[in-house]
Write a structure and sequence with these properties.
The protein has 262 residues and is mainly α.
Length: 262
């Protein structure tokens, strides 16, 4: 009977019948099933509760597994789902859970993403130096063909920039572009590399970098506005007047960038 309840709940979950899942799991748990059936049931219930946006209830289901069956075969996955449920109501608790997963289960395929989430939380809480370390962990665990590796490099560079370490920030943006020259974030990194040259009054090198970034459709809108303005200023410094005017015309047609942030 327990296996029948679990099988039916699993099928209902696949069909999107979350109310039916919760009903089946309730009936199963009432029989005090042995492990791993109990944890399997709680996990399935938590997934359905989360899909119903019952995040506190989902977190409690996942937490019951973690607290009562730490040896559960999919405990890393349970912790991951727990963190996402917590993210909806208690971001600090979620960050702690992501960190716990990454530290206690470094071989999990989820560890790289968890370190990335920890880094994002640290940036939001104005801890850029700690965030850079977390993004470095994420980068080291992500595979070379994983988009997460490029994102980790990019966010690590931003963390160094927010920490005031422009040298290391530029070095990381440069590494990112070298490793992912056609990556989704390459254009944004090229803008930031050009910014470093612009600040040093290396206008020719800066302009070349801006040109390459602006040629990409992947450039983010706020950095595009900054790149157009600074490229126009660099062209003017080089007495490339026609180019400077064309860039200013493009910049005028773009929405104003609120600030150079992320």
């Amino acid at each position: 009977a327990p296996q029948a309840h679990l099988l039916r709940a699993s099928l209902r979950h696949q069909l999107g019948n979350d109310a039916g899942v919760i009903e089946d799991i309730g009936a199963l748990l009432a029989t005090s099933p042995a492990e791993p059936a109990r944890s399997d049931a709680l996990y399935l219930r938590g997934l359905s509760q989360a899909r119903r946006q019952e995040f506190s209830a989902a977190a409690e289901s996942f937490r019951t597994i973690v607290n009562g069956n730490a040896a559960y075969h999919a405990v890393d996955r349970v912790l991951y789902e727990l963190a996402w449920a917590e993210q909806q109501t208690d971001p600090a608790a979620a960050a702690a859970t992501f960190r716990h997963l990454a530290e206690k289960h470094p071989d999990s395929p989820l560890a790289a993403e968890c370190w990335f989430r920890v880094g994002e939380s640290q940036l939001e809480n104005e801890q850029p130096a700690a965030a850079a370390e977390s993004f470095a962990q994420s980068e080291s665990l992500a595979t070379d063909d994983d988009a997460l590796k490029e994102k980790s490099l990019h966010r690590k560079a931003w963390a160094f920039l927010q920490a005031g370490d422009t040298r290391r920030s530029n070095a990381e943006f440069t590494r990112q572009v070298a490793m992912f020259p056609k990556g989704a974030l390459a254009a944004d990194a090229r803008v930031m590399m050009a910014e470093a040259h612009f600040e040093e009054k290396q206008y020719g090198t800066a302009l070349a970098g801006y040109d390459k970034a602006l040629a990409s459709e992947a450039i983010s809108k706020n950095l595009q506005a900054v790149a157009l303005l600074h490229a126009a200023q660099a062209a003017a410094q080089l007495e490339q007047w026609d180019k400077s005017i064309r860039l200013l015309d493009r910049a005028a047609a773009e929405p104003a960038s609120p600030h150079l942030s992320q």
